[in-house]
C-alpha cells in the first residue's frame, strides 16, 4: 500500500489570507514528488518479491488523476478516499481517515508514504497512520535492504549519516528522495491507467468514527499565515579596490557595526 | 467537428510532456554540441513503448491513432529535433511501412523489436545524384537464384550508422523508370552493406546521418518488401507518413521557441519595462502564436484524414510544406525577441533555429510539396 497526495505543481503556492489555507484553483496538480519515491520503492519490492501495489489518496475527486499517474507507473490498484465530510482535515484527521480506509480495505503488509508533502511540509501523516493502526513506523527511509515475511531491514537517513533498522511487519515507512529514481510512466501503463476503474471510499465506507473526521475531528486550527517580507537587496560597491575598502570601512562605522 | 483531444490523446500528451521535460530537454544542448547520438534516451523511448505508440498491438505497439502519433512527434520536437527525427524514421518511414506492406514473417521479425527500440531502422531512398527525382536512382538489384545482388549508394540517410535494418529502394528493372523500383529490407550485418557517417551538419547534430554503400550485398528474396516493381509507390506512400511526423515535429519545435521567447520577453527589461510590454515584441509573439496554431491544425487535420484510412497526400503535403516553413519563421522571430543573446549558444533558440533549417529540405523540399499540391489542385503534373 502506498499513500500519496496530489499537490500543486508550483513553488509559489498562494495562500488564502482569510481562511489560511492553500489556493488550489488554477494551479496544475502533480503527485507529491516524495510519494513518487514511495511508489518506486513499492514497485521494486513487488518486482523482487511479487505481491500487489495499491495506491491510496485522500482528496477531492480530481485527485484520481494522481492515482492514475501511479497506475501508469505500474501500481496494480488504486483507491480514492473522498467525501465532503473529510474537508478541512488536519494531519491528525487525515491520518485517522487514511488509517480507517486501510483497515476497511483489509490491512496491508507494508505501507509506504513519501517522507512529507511539498505543500504542507509537515511529515506527520505517515507516522500518524502508523499510530492510528497501532503498527511500527520507520521514517526517512533511504533504502529498503530486504523484506521478509514478518520483518524488513532498511536504511534510515540522518543529516550526519544513516542507521540500519529492522522493523517487524506490518509497518509504515516514509521514503526519502535519496531512495531511488522514480520511473516514468510507459505508453502501455498510461493506457492501462486510463481504463483503470478506481473505486471511491466515502465516510460510510471506512473504519472510523464520524465525529473524528474533517474539520470537526481536527484538533489543530491555522490561526494565521503570512508571507515573509523579501529581504532587501544588498548594496554593491564599485570602483578601485582601495576606494571600495575605504568606503566599506566608512559605511561600517556609520552603521556602528565596527 | 470536434477540436478536443480524446482522453487517450490527452494522456499521451501528458506522458510525453513529462518524458521530454525530464529525459530530453535537459540534455539536448549537450548532444548537439558533442554530436552525440542519444543512445540513453532512445533506449528509454523503447522501454517506455514510445516507438510503439502508433504501431499495431499484435506486434508490441499500443495501437493508438495518428493524432496520438503526431502528439508524440510534437512533444519530442519540443525537446530536440534530432530525437524527433529518430522517431520519425523509426516509426513513420520504416516500422509503419513494414506493418503496411510486410509479410507476416517480416512483421514478426521486425515490428516487436522496433516498437521496443531494440531494432532501429533507416530509410534508404535518396542517392548522391537522385534527390527530388527519386525515380532516377541508380542503385540496382539483380536477381541471383534465391537472392538479389544490390549495388549502389544511398546518401543523407538518417539513422544509417545506428540502424539494424535498412529499407532500401533499388531498381530491379533499369528500363522501367519508377515502375522498375523494388523495396528491400536489408540487415546491417549483410556482407557488402556498410555505412559512413556524415559530420559537421548545420543542425540535427545529435541524429546520425550517413551514407549507405551496397557492394554486391546479397539479399534473400524473402527480404523483398511488397511486390517486385512496386517500390516507388511504397516510397511515396511512406513519405506521406514521414512528412506527417516531420510537420508535427516542426509544430513542437516552434512551440518551444515561442515558449522560450515568451519567458524571456517577460524577464528582459529595456526602456524601464519588460520587453513583453513593447508593442513590436507583442507583434512578434502574436505572429508566432498564430503561425504555430495554423500549422498544428493542418497536422491534426492530416491526422484526421489518416485515421479515416483514406489517402492523405494532399493534407500531409500541405502540413509538411506549411509547418517546415513556419518553424523557420518562428525560430527567426524567437531569436529576434532574444536579441544578441539569441545568437549565442547560451539559449536554446539558437539550436532550434539551426535544427529548423533541414525541415524544408528533407522528405521532399518545400518546392516538391508545392508541386504535389499544385498537381492535386490543377490535375496538371509539373514534373514527370
Short description:
Chain A has 258 residues and is an alpha/beta fold. Chain A has one domain (2-212): Rossmann fold, CATH 3.40.50. In chain A, 28% of the residues lie in helices and 22% in strands.
SSE map:
The complex is a heterodimer of chains A (258) and B (384).
Chain A: E1 2-4, E2 6-8, E3 29-31, H1 33-49, E4 54-58, H2 64-73, E5 77-81, H3 91-104, E6 110-114, H4 125-133, E7 136-147, E8 151-157, E9 162-168, E10 171-175, H5 187-195, E11 200-201, H6 241-254
Parallel strand pairs in A: 1-4, 1-6, 4-5, 5-11, 6-10, 7-10
Antiparallel strand pairs in A: 2-3, 7-8, 8-9
Chain B: H1 7-23, H2 28-34, H3 39-47, H4 66-79, H5 81-101, H6 104-115, E1 121-124, E2 140-144, E3 147-158, E4 165-171, E5 181-187, E6 193-197, E7 209-220, E8 224-225, H7 231-267, E9 269-270, E10 273-274, H8 279-307, H9 313-338, H10 349-356, H11 366-378
Parallel strand pairs in B: 1-4
Antiparallel strand pairs in B: 2-3, 3-7, 4-5, 5-8, 6-7, 9-10
Helix pairs in contact in B: 1-4, 4-5, 4-7, 5-6, 5-7, 7-8, 7-9, 8-9, 9-10, 9-11
Textual characterization of the structure:
The complex is a heterodimer of chains A (258) and B (384). Chain A is an alpha/beta fold and 258 residues long. In chain A, 28% of the residues lie in helices and 22% in strands. The longest helix of chain A has 17 residues, at 33-49. The mean pLDDT of chain A is 88. With 384 residues, chain B is α+β, with helices and mostly antiparallel strands. Chain B has three domains: 7-120, Orthogonal Bundle (Butyryl-Coa Dehydrogenase, subunit A, domain 1), CATH 1.10.540; 122-229, Butyryl-CoA Dehydrogenase, subunit A, domain 2 (Beta Barrel), CATH 2.40.110; 233-378, Butyryl-CoA Dehydrogenase, subunit A, domain 3 (Up-down Bundle), CATH 1.20.140. In chain B, helix 9 packs antiparallel against helix 10. The model of chain B has no long low-confidence stretch (mean pLDDT 97). Chains A and B meet through helix 5 of A and helix 1 of B.
Amino acid at each position: 500500500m502506498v499513500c500519496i497526495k496530489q499537490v500543486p505543481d508550483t513553488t509559489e503556492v498562494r495562500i488564502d489570507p482569510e481562511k489560511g489555507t492553500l489556493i488550489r484553483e488554477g494551479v496544475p496538480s502533480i503527485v507529491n514528488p516524495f510519494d513518487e519515491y514511495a511508489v518506486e520503492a513499492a514497485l521494486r519490492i513487488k518486482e523482487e518479491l511479487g505481491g500487489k501495489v495499491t495506491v491510496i489518496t485522500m482528496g477531492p475527486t480530481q485527485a484520481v488523476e494522481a492515482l492514475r499517474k501511479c497506475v501508469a507507473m505500474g501500481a496494480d490498484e488504486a483507491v480514492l478516499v473522498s467525501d465532503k465530510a473529510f474537508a478541512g482535515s488536519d494531519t491528525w484527521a487525515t491520518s485517522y481517515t487514511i488509517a480507517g480506509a486501510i483497515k476497511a480495505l483489509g490491512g496491508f503488509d507494508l505501507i509506504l508514504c513519501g517522507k512529507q508533502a511539498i505543500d504542507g511540509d509537515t511529515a506527520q501523516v505517515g507516522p500518524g497512520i502508523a499510530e492510528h493502526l497501532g503498527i511500527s513506523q520507520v521514517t526517512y527511509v533511504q533504502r529498503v535492504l530486504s523484506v521478509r515475511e514478518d520483518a524488513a531491514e532498511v536504511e534510515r537517513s540522518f543529516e550526519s549519516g544513516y542507521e540500519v533498522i529492522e522493523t517487524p511487519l506490518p509497518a509504515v515507512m516514509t521514503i526519502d528522495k535519496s531512495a531511488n529514481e522514480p520511473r516514468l510512466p510507459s505508453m502501455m501503463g498510461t493506457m492501462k491507467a486510463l481504463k483503470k476503474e478506481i473505486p471511491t471510499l466515502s465516510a460510510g465506507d471506512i473504519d472510523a468514527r464520524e465525529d473524528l473526521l474533517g474539520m470537526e475531528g481536527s484538533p489543530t486550527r491555522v490561526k494565521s499565515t503570512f508571507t515573509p517580507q523579501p529581504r532587501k537587496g544588498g548594496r554593491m560597491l564599485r570602483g578601485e579596490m582601495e576606494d571600495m575598502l575605504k568606503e566599506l570601512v566608512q559605511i561600517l562605522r556609520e552603521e556602528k557595526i565596527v | 467537428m470536434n477540436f478536443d483531444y480524446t482522453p487517450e490523446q490527452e494522456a499521451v500528451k501528458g506522458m510525453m510532456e513529462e518524458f521530454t521535460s525530464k529525459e530530453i530537454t535537459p540534455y539536448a544542448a549537450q548532444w548537439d554540441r558533442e554530436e552525440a547520438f542519444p543512445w540513453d534516451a532512445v533506449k528509454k523511448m523503447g522501454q517506455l513503448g514510445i516507438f510503439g505508440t502508433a504501431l499495431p498491438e499484435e506486434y508490441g505497439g499500443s495501437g493508438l491513432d495518428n493524432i496520438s502519433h503526431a502528439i508524440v512527434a510534437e512533444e519530442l520536437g519540443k525537446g530536440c529535433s534530432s530525437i524527433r527525427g529518430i522517431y520519425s524514421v523509426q516509426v513513420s518511414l520504416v516500422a509503419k511501412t513494414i506493418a503496411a506492406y510486410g509479410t507476416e514473417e517480416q512483421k514478426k521479425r521486425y515490428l516487436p523489436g522496433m516498437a521496443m527500440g531494440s531494432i532501429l531502422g533507416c530509410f534508404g531512398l535518396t542517392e548522391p545524384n537522385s534527390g527530388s527525382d527519386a525515380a532516377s536512382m541508380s542503385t540496382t538489384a539483380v536477381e541471383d537464384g534465391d537472392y538479389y545482388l544490390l549495388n549502389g549508394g544511398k546518401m543523407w540517410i538518417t539513422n544509417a550508422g545506428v540502424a539494424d535494418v535498412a529499407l532500401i529502394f533499388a531498381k530491379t528493372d533499369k528500363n522501367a523508370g519508377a515502375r522498375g523500383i523494388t523495396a528491400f529490407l536489408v540487415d546491417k550485418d549483410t556482407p557488402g552493406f556498410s555505412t559512413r557517417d556524415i559530420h559537421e551538419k548545420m543542425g540535427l547534430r545529435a541524429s546520425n546521418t550517413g551514407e549507405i554503400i551496397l557492394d554486391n550485398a546479397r539479399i534473400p528474396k524473402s527480404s523483398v518488401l511488397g511486390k517486385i516493381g512496386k517500390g516507388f509507390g511504397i516510397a511515396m506512400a511512406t513519405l506521406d507518413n514521414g512528412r506527417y511526423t516531420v510537420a508535427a515535429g516542426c509544430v513542437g519545435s516552434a512551440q518551444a521557441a515561442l515558449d522560450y521567447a515568451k519567458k524571456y520577453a517577460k524577464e528582459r527589461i529595456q526602456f524601464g519595462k519588460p520587453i513583453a510590454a513593447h508593442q513590436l515584441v507583442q507583434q512578434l509573439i502574436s505572429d508566432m502564436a498564430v503561425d504555430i496554431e495554423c500549422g498544428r491544425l493542418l497536422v491534426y487535420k492530416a491526422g484526421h484524414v489518416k485515421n479515416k484510412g483514406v489517402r492523405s497526400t494532399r493534407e500531409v503535403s500541405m502540413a509538411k510544406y506549411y509547418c517546415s516553413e513556419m518553424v523557420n519563421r518562428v525560430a527567426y522571430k524567437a531569436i529576434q525577441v532574444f536579441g544578441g543573446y539569441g545568437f549565442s549558444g547560451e539559449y536554446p533558440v539558437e539550436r532550434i533555429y539551426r535544427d529548423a533549417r533541414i525541415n524544408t529540405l528533407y522528405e521532399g523540399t518545400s518546392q516538391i510539396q508545392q508541386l504535389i499540391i499544385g498537381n492535386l489542385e490543377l490535375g496538371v503534373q509539373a514534373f514527370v
